[in-house]
Every structure is written in C-alpha cells, then in structure tokens.
Amino acid sequence: MIRFGPAGNSQSFYNEGFKHTKQAAAWLKERGLNAFEYSFGRGVRLKEETGRDIAAEFDASGIAMSVHAPYYINFCTDDPEKREASINFLLQAMRAGTYLNAKRTVFHPGSCSKMDRETAKGYAMEAFKEALERIKAEGLMGLPCPETMGKINQFGTLDEVLELCTLREDLVPTIDFGHLDARGIGAIKGRAEYEAILDAIENKLGRDRLRMMHVHFSKIEHTKAGEKRHVTFADEGFTPDFLPLAELVAERDLTPVIICESAGTQAEDALAMKEMYESFR
Ligand SMILES: [Zn+2]
Questions:
Q1: Would you state the pLDDT for residue 208?
Q2: Which of 23, 120, 238, 280 could lock onto 219 through a cystine, CB 3.0 to 4.6 A?
Q3: How far, in Å, is the centroid of ligand 1 from the Cα of 152?
Q4: Gap between the Cα atoms of 35 and 270, Å rounded
Q5: Which domains does the chain show, CATH number per domain?
Q6: Which of 31, 38, 39, 35 is nearest to 4 (CA)?
C-alpha cells in the first residue's frame, strides 16, 4: 500500500491550535494522509509512556510511523569512539522507535569531507554491519533505512546508499529525491532522470525492495556544494518536480512510503503529491 505523509507537524497543525503529536493522528487521517515521520534529528528524547500514547493514536488511525535518527550519526570515521557513538545514536532512535511502533528508521550515514569516498564507504559498510548485528541481538524493530544525502561532501550518493542496503536482504533505502537533485546541482530534470534512479534501485536490490522503498520528497534550494535549504511547493523556481515521479510510481505499481519534508507545509504538500499520484491511477 502506498503511503503519503509529512515529516513532523505542519505549521497549519499548530495554527489550528493543536499542540501534541498524538493529536496529529486524527488530523492526518481527516486529510487523507496515512504516514508520519517523527524526528529524533536533534536527539532522542522521548519518554516511553509518551511514545506509547502517540503510537496508540497513530495505530488507531492507520497512520504508519517512521522515525528519523539523530543527524550527527557519522559512520565514516576511523575513530572507534565516534563510530561507537554513532552506532549508539542509531540504536537509541530504534529503541524509542519501538515505543512509537515505528516500522522504519531513517538515518544519515555520514560525512566524507575528511576522506576520499572509497575509504568512507569502507568505514560506513563496516559500521553499519556492526549496527545490524546489534539491532538483531537486541531484537529491535524498525528497519534502518540509509538516506541519500544532499550535500556533495556527505556520504550518501544513490550508489553508496544502495551499497549499504546490500548488507541484508530486507534493507530498503531512503531515497530523498530533493537531495539527489541538490547534490547533482539540479540533476533531476524530468521523467528520464527519475527512470534512471528507479532502474538503478531495481538493478541493485531487486523489484520487491524498489516497490517498498522509503521516499523523502521536497523542493530544495542548492548551491555548488549541493543542498542549501528546504522550500515548499508554493515557492517558485525550485526543483525537482514530483509530477513525473508520480506518473512512474503509478505506472510501475510501486508502493513506497512517501514523506514530505517541505518547510512548514509538509502535510499540504504531501497531500498535493497524493493527488498527483491519484491522477495517474
Ligand atoms: Zn534525512
């Protein structure tokens, strides 16, 4: 089943007087959305009781929950302490994710500003492998989904992320199309570029995993270094355009979870994406 929803709460949610994320479940359902991503980007601070409260509302409304692990994870390091800390940040997010009944945990694999990409890949593969072993040993739910990144000096090209997903047969990537566009300095012009991305995922991981991929989508302003800031669908002159992707998702019968990361209008823009997708069904 394809799903659409926001990363965090839209400004309109707060403007309407709502304060607590557990209230977002009914709010999203009423608008026809069925996914939500809860951010631990700035740290994992969620009490078990609060998490379970939120999960009960979301489960009752049929909204699929994913979480975003802390932004400061960096697997691309030769420093054993930093690597250990990074593995722990991912595990913390996954533990708190279990309170939320989150099925997926998105994470940024790391930075390669201080080393060449091949070396970075070696470290990232090694650290992620170790993280996977500990996740298994602890029996944590919430599939870890490495994300494609928007800045050129970050680890997380499409190929790099797909490579991480080869470590286990059930891993799916988080394909952030805005990030891929930004790191390619406006690389996604239309249908042909989206097709190439989808083909690359299918060729590397197979059709089942392509169908189930996690998606982040927003328009992103970029500089020559890649990502600068997230904008909204109402901001003119930014890329990429979701419409050709909506058509391909429908044509290829894909069932991703599509999370919108627009700045402030993420629920509204998620709904706009859902409508574009439905226009091709
Ligand atoms: Zn992210």
A1: 98
A2: 238
A3: 15
A4: 10
A5: 3-278 (3.20.20.150)
A6: 35
